[in-house]
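Aim 2 progress. For DMT family transporter, the working sequence is reproduced below.
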Amino acid sequence: MTEVWGVLAAVVSSALGGTSIGATRFLVNAIDPLAIGSFRFGVGFLLLLPVALVQGHRWPPRQDWPAVAGLGLLFYAAFPILFNASLIFTTAARGALALSTLPLLTMVVGAALGSEPLTARKTAGVLVAISGVSMALLSGLATAPDGAWRGDLLMVGAALCMALYSIWSKPFIRRSGPIPFTTLAMAAGAAVLVILSMLRGSFAPVEAFGPPQWLGALYLGAFGSALTFYLWAFALERTTPTRVAISVTVNPVAASLVGATLLGEPLRWNLGAGIVTVFIGIWIATTQSRRKTALQELRIKL
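Predicted C-alpha cells for this construct:
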C-alpha cells in the first residue's frame, strides 16, 4: 500500500508540473529563465520553510549537507535553467515530449549505477507510456519553430538532471523525511538562482508586471514548486525512482488539458487515446506480474 501512495503522489506531482509548463511559457516572454526559476523556487522555499519548522521533523544531519546542497543545485538550479531556456526555442508540446524521456533516462541510469534492476516489465511500461505521450501531442508536434531541436536537447538535459536527482536523493529523503530534505535542497538552488538573477539584472522587468504576471509567478511558487516537489520527494521515499519518474508522462497530458480549458484549444481524439495509453504504461511499469508476487509471498512464508 505504501508504494501505491508513492505512485499516486508522483502522478499528482507530475500533473501539477504539466500546468506549470503553461505558466512558464506565459512568463518566459516577460522575464528571463533565471528570474522565473528564482520566483518559482524562492517562493516555494518560503512556503515550505514554516511547514518544516512546525512539523518538527529531523533535518538532514550535518554530514549530509554538502550532498543535499549539491542535489539542490542539480535539481533546483540546473534543472529550471535548462527547462525554462528550452521553452524559448521549442513549443510546449515538443518540450513536454522531450521531458517525458525522464522515465527512460531514470531506468537506464539507475541500472548503470546499480540502484535499480532493469526489468522487461518496467521497460515495456515506460515505452508504452512514452508512446501515449507522443499520441496525445500528435497535432502539436507537426508545427515547430526553426531551431526547435535546441530546445528539445535542453529539455532532455533537464530530464537527465531530474533522473540523477531522483536516484541520488532517495537515501537522504529516508534519513530526514521529504519536507526537511526538499526545503534544504530547494534553499540551495533558489539562493544560486537569486544571486545569478541579481548579477544579470534579471529582475528589472518585474517593475512592469501586472496582475497576470504576478499570479503566474505565485502559481509557479506555490503549486509548481512547493507542492509539486514535496509530492515528488514523498513519492521517492515510498517507491523506486523509475516508478516515480514514469509519472512524468502525465505532465504533457495535463498541460494539454489546461490548454483546452483555459486557452480554448480543441480536444482531439488523439488526446483521449494518449491519456488511456499513458495510464496503461504506468500500470504496467508500477505493478508486478502475478507470478513474481506469488514467489515473493512464498519467500516470506518460508
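Residues 2-301 form one domain. This observation will guide construct design in the next reporting period.
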